[in-house]
Design a protein that fits this description.
With 676 residues, the chain is mainly α.
């Protein structure tokens, strides 16, 4: 009989649970950002502040919890919103601790599992920002703990209705991830199927309100004019279903250029993350833990965990159609947090097995030594703390966001460039989130009117988002003509196709009602300084890297237009920025695009020089679309010079890398095929 490692008394268990929560919470509190960041942070902070409706499927439960935290009096709205995810993430670590205890781990080993889960890079990253994934992990592991306890104590009548309520609430947070985990939960609960079968009316009475009431509240809130209301008022069951089913994200969840190769690359990347997230020794112990469960014939426990892990990893990869590239890895990364919790539980089982074997050996060889009974518990605590410390150290640089101010600096720079009483029209989440947060939540630049060109996110909008593009342009034209206020925009082709002139101010553009030409205004010193900062600073994460690349690309267009103008005095004023731009792939590419699209043969030598400079600057940050676009530009230059066969080869290479309908190389090849 193995000797179990048990610390005596209920107090030790209570203290260990408190430590399982308090340790991660302290870590998250120290490292959470003090201002808004990217991902969906700005959108959820606005939703929480206004009790608004976030992006599909709405996340009403998280929105409400975030709102409660944002009512606290001791910090900025951004810090309080981030704190909501930190508390939820720390409680999720506590739920992992309870699950580990129910699987037979001692308080020390359950605590180690909880800490390693909390210190894993991806869990830690989501506990620092306003996001829904730590709440999803908390609800899942709370439910899993209830099922494990209910199977052991089926006579406890309160367990199953409580589990039903928690499951319903989990569907009101992130139902797709919970749906993928449901087969594993069913297997975990199956030993008590007769109790569940007898109790189904009570279970439905807990489940249905748990899921329905938050969404009903969301529908009601959509009609209360919150300043964040993603699609606007929800007026019918059809519109509600559109929201819940994420139909509006179909083009994002499934790219026409993604294939099985992308899925295999995602699985390979995910396998690497599974191997290292809880440290390599932790993964090895988790493998031992699965073996122990199978050896003990605890097939349902092992099978339940395996189904949950596969559902939130392999099945998810197969259902999604993402291109595997630098940016989509950042999008996919938080989806599998529950997987790391399952691995933490297996780790606890494996660690317990190893220590039990050591205890048997130690008791047989050192029984006469009075200190042996506390040596191994101390050793277990030391090893668990050591692995946790190693994990914290390994992930500290990526997750210490206390000084993150990328989004804040961007918003400050844009607000500096916009004159008083202007209209600012945004486009895209990474643009709309930071600007919307500071304007609507922190009330910066109250003189501005903030709108979204896609008619999304903000409660105030000019038209319904479902209108055809032509009709949207008509409404925008009418709005611009009627208002006497200056109208600025950050990006979006719809704004450039209204038939008005456009005046470039560097990172923002202004509508010129009295003409149709492109004008340039010398970029202000703040814009020059910000551009230099973008090129010199190291981004904190993939989101910042992607947004930085977009901003550099945007300013490159401005610089390309300046070169195209040939105005010597103007070029002298931007010489420093132009020299910096020639050291970056994205600005070089956008400058080359401008000269190719609007220039002539006299510009081809400059385009070739820029493209040659850009070629060695390509790295792993390049997505498929950018790599394909670069080849397209090279091919287009060859075509302009009459080198048709060389152009065809480059267009084919571009299409092979990114076989997306939006790839201009596909249309170019089609035109070459029909050319005489």
């Amino acid at each position: 009989m193995p000797i179990s490692l048990r610390l005596p008394g209920k107090l030790s268990g209570a203290l260990a649970f408190a430590a399982a929560v308090a340790g991660p919470l302290a870590l998250y509190s120290i490292t959470l950002p003090r201002s808004v960041v990217l991902e969906d942070d700005g959108l959820f902070l606005m939703a929480g502040a206004s009790l608004g409706v976030a992006h599909p499927p709405g996340y009403p439960l998280y929105t409400f919890l975030c709102h409660l935290f944002m009512q606290l009096p001791f910090a900025s709205p951004a810090v309080l919103g981030h704190l909501s995810s930190a508390v939820l993430g720390a409680l999720a670590c506590g739920a992992v601790y309870l699950c580990a205890r129910l699987l037979g781990a001692t308080v020390v080993l359950a605590l180690a599992a909880a800490w390693l889960f909390g210190a894993s890079e991806h869990v830690w990253s989501q506990a620092l920002i306003a996001e829904v994934y730590t709440l999803n992990a908390l609800l899942f592991f709370t439910l899993y703990a209830l099922l494990l306890y209910g199977v052991r104590q089926p006579q406890r009548d309160w367990v199953w209705p409580t589990a039903a309520v928690v499951y319903g609430l989990s569907l009101a947070n992130h139902w797709p991830l919970m749906a993928l985990a449901t087969p594993g939960l069913v297997v975990a609960a199956s030993p008590a199927w007769w109790v569940i079968g007898r109790s189904w009316p009570r279970l439905l009475a807990g489940l249905l309100p748990g899921v329905a009431l938050p969404y009903a509240w969301m529908v009601w809130r959509s009609h209360q004019a919150p300043f964040l209301n993603f699609y606007g008022p929800i007026d019918s069951l059809r519109e509600l279903w559109f929201y819940l089913s994420r139909s509006g994200y179909a083009h994002i969840d499934a790219s026409p250029s993604a294939g099985w190769g992308d899925r295999l690359e995602f699985l390979q990347w995910l396998g690497h993350e599974v191997l290292w997230q809880l440290t390599l020794p932790g993964f090895i112990l988790a493998v031992v833990g699965v073996g122990v469960l199978l050896q003990r014939r605890q097939w349902l426990v092992a099978g339940a965990g395996l189904l949950v892990l596969l559902g939130n990893s392999v099945a998810l990869v197969m259902l999604l159609g993402f291109d595997f590239d630098f940016y989509t890895i950042a999008v996919f990364r938080p989806y599998s947090l529950v997987c790391y919790g399952i691995i933490a539980l297996w780790l606890a089982v494996g660690f317990q097995f190893v220590l039990d074997r050591l205890l048997v050996w130690f008791s047989a060889t050192r029984a006469g030594w009075p200190g042996w009974s506390w040596l191994l518990p101390a050793l277990a605590l030391l090893v668990g703390a050591g692995m946790t410390a190693f994990s914290v150290q390994a992930h500290w640089q990526l997750n210490n966001r206390a000084g993150s101010n990328f989004a804040q600096r961007y918003a400050e720079m844009i607000f500096d460039l916009i004159p008083q009483d202007a209209v600012l029209i945004t486009y895209g989440d990474t643009d709309t989130g930071p600007l919307g947060y500071y304007h609507l939540v922190e009330n910066q630049r109250p003189d501005l009117t903030l709108l979204n060109a896609q008619a999304l996110v903000f409660g105030r909008r000019l038209y319904d988002w479902r209108l055809p593009e032509e009709r949207k342009q008509e409404v925008l034209r009418e709005f611009v003509n009627k208002t006497e206020r200056p109208v600025f925009f950050t990006s979006g082709t719809i704004m450039s196709e209204l038939g008005f002139g456009v005046r470039y101010h560097g990172f923002v553009k202004e509508i010129v009602r009295s003409g149709t030409l492109v004008e340039l205004t010398l970029i202000q010193s703040r814009g020059k300084w910000y551009f230099a900062e973008l090129l010199s600073r190291t981004p904190n994460d993939r989101w910042e890297q992607s947004q930085s690349n977009k901003l550099i690309y945007s300013l490159g267009k401005y610089l390309g237009l300046a070169v195209l103008s040939g105005d010597a005095r103007f070029l002298q004023g931007i010489q420093d920025s132009l020299a910096l731009a020639e050291q970056n792939f994205y600005s070089l590419m956008s400058m080359a695009e401008i000269l190719l699209e609007h220039g002539g043969p006299s510009h081809y030598a400059q385009v070739e020089t820029w493209l040659e400079k850009a070629k060695p600057l390509q790295d792993e940050n390049m997505g498929k679309e950018r790599l394909a676009r670069f080849l397209y530009l090279q091919g287009f230059l060859q075509h302009c010079r009459g080198e048709v066969e060389a152009a065809r080869i480059l267009f084919n290479e571009s299409r092979a890398i990114y076989p997306h309908p939006e790839n201009a190389s596909i249309d170019a090849l089609r035109q070459l095929a029909v050319a005489p």
